[in-house]
UniProtKB/TrEMBL annotation:
GO biological process terms held by the UniProt record: cell division; protein folding; protein transport
Superkingdom in the source lineage: Bacteria
Function: Involved in protein export. Acts as a chaperone by maintaining the newly synthesized protein in an open conformation. Functions as a peptidyl-prolyl cis-trans isomerase.
Name of the encoding gene: tig
Locations listed in the record: Cytoplasm
The record's note on its domains: Consists of 3 domains; the N-terminus binds the ribosome, the middle domain has PPIase activity, while the C-terminus has intrinsic chaperone activity on its own.
Alphabetized Gene3D superfamilies for the sequence: 3.10.50.40, Trigger factor ribosome-binding domain, Trigger factor, C-terminal domain
Organism listed in the record: Phaeobacter inhibens
Name of the molecule in the record: Trigger factor
Length: 443
């Protein structure tokens, strides 16, 4: 087998690979020898079919398989000996398209090699870590929000009209074309006006009603309604308003605390304080991470594989276009052209991605099975009732596994770098932290 370099410009590489007819024939014979003990053929005992007959019978079928394995072997040997790591899947094509049995096989292989990543002195990196304490005002605000979510309703005075946000207790019967339908009736149903829990247009028509009042509510089922026999149909609901109740925020006391699993109010405040400080720490970490990436981006410079940059720029352009056009759900639109701004951002992402991968590899950073399981469980919660199917889907999908593994790996590498850098803590207010987070989103 011969491997001849044909291109070496920057990160671009090209090679001509020749597999001789003799090598290919030897590979076919090797595969026939492996298969011979299991082959059964009329007139011969199992495993005793002559090689000449086996080759005549199966040789043609094995040539393509042998050719692929031989070329793959040549490529793997090349990468082992050269130390090159292709940025993307190498482009491999056979050049003698008029090949026939007995000819040598000529192949061209081209790829872009990953660059050499320069050493970085992480001890010289200086970072600022924002620290926010959960003060009494923040805890009280969170308590008030909890009390609002735990609100109850109390009866309004006789004759009071229902307002948006009130709860009305109703009996109702729905009819389409004068006929009642399954699931269209209920008794003593507590409906919060403005909750959008009923068909669009239903709740608004009950605003202003009073206890003891009867009202016909006319609505049209959405075209995409899950019950096909009702989709797009007009319905009339005969409603009897039995009670009108005003919302009442829960009192902030031990009883409220117990509703949220705490022993008493002091315990609930402690839980809220811990949760808030965890949220602050997460936001502060995001700010510090951006600062770290900015510094790393300034510290290193090396050639980037054009194919990686181009693919990343296209992905960025596509994602941003969909964010600007949320009404377009599918991907059967015209190709989105990457701009100079997209290319610049792509270069940064590729550069930092390669650098973090190199630093993580040298530090032997690994994503554990437990960390992957936790990540899969978090994703599975988005599919209630289908968690098992989601787990099986992930197990069978290497690309999805990589999508889940990549951010975990990156975060662990960031932590590794931060451990070696000089980190100064700076206590700031919640508003200052919020401003820093918003600044990230604006960039």
């Amino acid at each position: 087998m011969q491997v001849t370099e044909t291109l070496n410009e920057g990160l671009k590489r090209g090679y001509a690979i020749t597999v001789t007819a003799a090598e290919l024939d030897a590979k076919v014979n090797e595969k026939l020898v492996e298969a011979q003990p299991e082959v059964e053929m009329k007139g011969f005992r199992k495993g005793k079919v002559p090689m000449a007959l086996l080759k005549k019978q199966f040789g043609q079928r094995l040539i393509g398989e042998a050719m692929q394995e031989t070329i793959d072997g040549a490529m793997n040997k090349h990468f082992e000996e050269s130390g090159d790591r292709p940025a993307m899947q190498p482009d491999v094509k056979m050049t003698n398209e008029d090949w026939k049995e007995g000819d040598d096989v000529n192949v061209e292989m081209s790829y872009e090699a990953l660059p050499e990543i320069p050493e970085v002195d992480l001890s010289g990196v200086e970072l600022e870590k924002l620290v926010v304490k959960a003060d009494d005002a923040a805890v009280d605000e969170a308590l008030a929000n909890l009390a609002e979510t735990a609100q109850d309703f109390e009866a309004r005075e006789d004759g009071a009209a229902a307002e948006d946000g009130d709860q009305v207790v109703i009996d109702f019967v729905g009819k389409v074309d004068g006929e009642a339908f399954d699931g269209g009736a209920g008794d003593d149903y507590p409906l919060t006006l403005g909750s959008n829990s009923f068909i669009p247009g239903f709740e608004e028509q009950l605003v202003g009603t009073k206890a003891g009042e009867e009202k016909d509510v006319t609505v049209t089922f959405p075209e995409e309604y899950q019950a096909e026999h009702l989709a797009g149909k007009e319905a009339v609901f005969s409603c009897t308003v039995k009670e009108v109740k005003a919302p009442k925020a829960a009192e902030i006391n031990d009883e409220l605390a117990q509703k949220f699993g705490a022993e008493d109010l002091a315990g609930l405040k402690g839980q809220i304080s811990e949760r808030l400080e965890a949220e602050y720490a997460g936001a502060a970490r995001a700010v510090m991470k951006r600062g770290l990436l900015d510094k790393l981006d300034d510290l290193v410079s090396f050639d980037l594989p054009p194919s990686l940059v181009e693919a990343e720029a296209k992905q960025i352009a596509h994602q941003l276009w969909h964010e600007e056009n949320p009404e377009v759900q599918g991907h059967d639109h015209d190709e989105i052209e990457a701009t100079d701004e997209h290319n610049k951002l792509a270069e940064r992402r590729v550069r930092l991605g390669l650098l973090l991968a190199e630093l993580g590899q040298k530090a032997e950073v690994e994503v554990t099975d437990a960390e992957m399981t936790q990540a899969i469980m978090q994703q599975a919660r988005q599919y209630p009732g289908q968690e098992r199917q989601f787990f099986e889907f992930i197990q069978q999908n290497a690309q999805m596994q990589q999508q889940l593994r990549a951010p975990i790996f990156e975060d662990k590498v960031i932590d590794h770098i931060a451990e070696q850098a000089k980190v100064d803590e700076k206590e700031v207010s919640k508003d200052d932290l919020q401003a820093a987070v918003e600044a990230l989103e604006d960039e």
